[in-house]
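anyone else get weird line breaks when pasting these?? whatever heres mine. first is seq + tokens for prot A
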Amino acid sequence: MKKKIIIVGASHGGHQSILELLSRYEDIDITLFEAGNFVSFMSCGMELYLENSVTDVNAVRNFRPESFPQENVHILNNHQVTKINSDKRTVFVTDLENGKQTEESYDKLILSSGVNPKSLPIAGNELENVYLMRGYDWATKIKSKLENPEVKNITVVGAGYIGIEAAEAAVKAGKHVTLLDVIDRPLGTYLDSELTDIISAHLADKGVEIHTGVKISAFSGQNNKVQFVKSNQGDFPSDVVIQAAGVQPNTEWLKGTVALDERGWIKNDEYLRTNLPDVYAIGDATLAYSIAARKKVPVALATVARREARYLVKHLFEKTPAVPFAGIVGSSALSVFDYHFAQSGLNSFTAERAGVKIACSFYEDTLRPSYVPEDKGNPKVYVKLFFDPETHRLLGGAVLSTYDITAQGNVLALAISHQLKVEDLAEADFFFQPGFDRQWSLLNLAAQHALGEVEFTRK
């Protein structure tokens, strides 16, 4: 008899689970339930859509239901899983189109329920033109406002990745953009101040009005439409407000059944098992084991969900998996107008939050030998490294330049995942060609600088 696998959620974790199941097993039947109407929008591609850099909004997705024509795969959108009965090994599912509820049995249940964007708990959230920066429906609404000439002022709440993407798309659409955040600098939870200072100045040069340390008290307006964002720093005129103030796990429906921590993240063990037998949890609704921090931390990334799904399915039918999940580094990248950065592992903010002691080093140079002028492709490059002050084990790093050096972030990720030391990075054997880099590669030089070595000649 075929083993019945139920998957909750059609984003990265759910998609990868189907791919892995089909690749590894034959006698299985797969059903994926997705509460949303659209399967499955890639919110990380929203900026490209808003800037008219995609073929079509309906193509900004991981997969379509028809991507899996196999008879043993069933993908049902508009179907919300509302309850788990672990004793009977069933889930209760509501068809959101007709309200009909069914009870479906499983042999294995994979939870990849993801996260929901946060709305500020303030008055005025119900006003028209107050939007969230996530999902297909919000993407199309925001796009219509960017194309509307009557919309002049757009206020973005939250200066993380999503808020920066929203601000850039709005500036390119010709709007006046105000960027607000409660912390002291844009991207402050992702990058240290040496790098955020550069980015903040660049945002201002591009016309983004930045206000930090802002405490928002309400959204206000007339005729049910937003007109102002009210705060401790005054009222900001706003024809549209885009909230990008973080996410929260989509786990309210699991309370009292699946073990959750105090913030609502699903608790899973080193094998990604929940407290319920044959029920597993992956992706953004869980905490991921960080190789750098050596503990579980919140890392909401597609790459994390896919790696967890690959591991989980590989060991799904083992009574006790042969090995625990190895963990993740947590790497990401972003373009901010003319600048590009990538970061991996820990930084000062995340290390402090995780209780990890770090040492750090900031390195500034040019990409290529100094005899190449800047206007011939030799821009400034910046590297921040984080490492254990006693063992010199690499714990994190970031790179930034107007030249796209984000691939260096992958080098850092590999070094961190293999627990290399600063000394290893200082001596790593990379290529040299003056059309691309220096006699010692950028990360070699940054590591040598971190070790306090005499500076390599710039000639």
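and prot B, same format (seq, then tokens)
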Amino acid sequence: MIAATPQRDAPLRISLLGPVRAWGTAGELELGSGQRKAVLSVLAMRANQLVTKGELVDAVWGETAPASAYGGIHTHISALRKRLEPRWARRSTGEVLVSTGSGYRLALSGCALDVERFRVLRERARERQRGRDVAGELAALDSALELWRGEALDGVSGPHASWQRTRLAELRLGAVERRARLMVNAGARYAVIDELDRLCRSHPLREESHSLLMHALYLADRRGDAIDVFHRLRSATVEQLGTEPGPGPSALYGEILRDDPALRWTRDEPTGPARPIPLAVRSRPDRPRGFTGRGEQVALLRAAAGAVAAGTGGVVRIEGPPGAGKSALLAEGLAETPGCQLAWSVADELGQQVPLHTVLDGLDVTALSPDPRRAALAALARQVEPERLDRDTVAAAVEGAVELVHELCADGPLVVVVDQLQWADPLSLLVLRRLLPATAERPLLVVTASRPALRRELEPLWAAATRATTITLGPRR
């Protein structure tokens, strides 16, 4: 495990948990414009990995990239090199900011990025929680939260920055809430009431924060204030979501009304997962009974699944008229995908009106997901309104979905299946178009099934694939 504190002789340190800043051996570096900081933040978040020029353009500008975007990336990279590598020779590929044929790689030690130190300290806190070391867990959370200097990537625009801001904010809120629970359990309820009150007012729909504040207020002999907090939460959920608060705060509210003696006992959540929750596979359809024929096509699908399990991505495109057996072929050919994560969705005609519905459904993205990556993306996707598609919000949501897939590929090989592709919503098609080139570099297999030429929007999708296997099915006889 990498160290959680920076080494004194580290040649480069970068901070993203607040304004984007960097330090070299001679002190803090002048980074320049917001776009230049956006480029550096993408490279830092994917330190020691190749980031293609196209990915940098998408991360900084999204779908609104100007014709000069690639030239702008080159200009920003050159300026960053002068700051990060003062002795850089113009004709060299660099040692810190390394050029390759298709992109760039930022060489950065694990301890040199505050986001990585934050991750390490959160993992240390979970280890202490599993070992029931309350003091050790609290110390790790305190150290993790001390890394923050404001809103993550403050002042940096672009889809990548928006998505990372949402994701990192969700992680920070989780750490704040866990620390508050430990403090309440330890009897230090007065020390967290003000902080929790500010948190609840900033996040009026966040049930865990409200539950913590209700409990802390009750233990501080402020029963009426605890009841008011619940009513404030209920008003917000009914007005904004059209639903009542969830079972957690509702049950706590009932306990407070009847002065339940159990409120005086320490309460805690079950030990959380040691790593992000893997993709659910409940959406995989049952294997069709009595499936016969299509031996060659089934073999192609199974070969593609075997290849991605071994690390080689790809694209398989199945086309055929209604009743040709496309869904049955998918279910048979991908009945087993050992060693792979699986994201399976079936688009429907009504779902075209819900932005990102197809992609997020397959990736198991919900607001209640225990995986903070998915919960953060769900929160962002809720801001995309079908009647008024705000360009910045849409770009951030699309970037978030793409980034989630990239992160899942880092966890292990991933198979993304979209059946009835012709009914997919436009933003899901945009995400898929962004993902297809990544199949050449990541353990990612994208498999789709659709009716032929039903939507013109599908043609740009296939133009984005560097290579694809097409399976054409005729009518069943």
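btw re prot B: The first helix runs from residue 34 to 45. Confidence is low (pLDDT under 50) at residues 1-10, 269-282.
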